[in-house]
Amino acid sequence: MRKLQTVKALEELGRVQLSKSFFMREFLYSEISQIEGIPNIPDNPELVIAAGKNLCEKVLEPIQDILGRISIRSAYRSCSVNAKGAERKNQYNCGSNESNYAGHIWDVRDSEGYMGATACIVVTSFIPYYEQTQDWTALAWWIHDHIDAYTRMTFFPKYAAFNISWRENPDASKVIYSYVKNPHTGKSGYLTKRGMDNYSGCHEQFYRTFIKQLPSK
Question: Which of 17, 170, 197, 210 is deepest in the core (most CB within 10 A)?
Fold first, then answer.
């Protein structure tokens, strides 16, 4: 698939089924693109599809299979869209292009040559529990214990939305970071990463109540 230059070509990309539940089109929407008038169109559609399939099949589908519907808040950004976001970081909260290669910028490999993809998502079934408790760690720990293929999560205050990433790099360490204070410690920042005492083992005590509250399928 060559660089997209027609509406028909972009339609065809949008119709690509990345996994049983997800299609490419829902990952292309960008508020920055809409407001700034910058097309959010991949330069390398083949790499976007490959990275997106891995993210959807290995990370998003397993979460949705157990916890229910996932809402995509934002995902793929073209280099030009992300660059505008980084230029206005105080307004749009985007990192540099280099830091987003194989992250939000799916169609550029990282500095080590690995592909990857990031999406910002909301787990709908988690919203009531989060509104009651403000405890985003229940969801973070459940994913950490059950989704082997994720490499990084970053949590935000509204609805406990979070960025979640898949990376091709087999040595990538799992990292959980949050801009929301941990209700158990009163601190924001790293919940866990390689080298921290809480990185390994089972963390069921943090999400047991949330899982019990899930509606029966």
Answer: 210
In the chain, DSSP finds a helix count (H) and a strand count (E) of 10, 6
For 163-207, the pLDDT digits (tens) are 999 999 988 889 999 999 999 999 999 999 999 999 999 999 999
| Residue 123: count of CB within 10 angstroms of its CB | 24
Beta-carbon contacts of residue 154 (< 8 Å; ≥ 6 apart) = 162, 163, 176, 177, 178, 179
Strand ranges (E), the chain: 70-74, 116-123, 152-155, 162-167, 175-178, 189-193
* 3-state class (DSSP) for residue 192: strand
Orientation angle between helical segments 137-146 and 204-213, nearest 10 degrees: 100
Q: How far is CA 63 from CA 14, 35, 70, 147, 205, in A?
A: 23, 31, 8, 7, 19
Strands 189-193 and 162-167: unpaired
pTM for the complete prediction? 0.94
Q: Is 51 strand, coil or helix?
A: helix
CA dist., res. 86 & res. 213, Å (int): 39
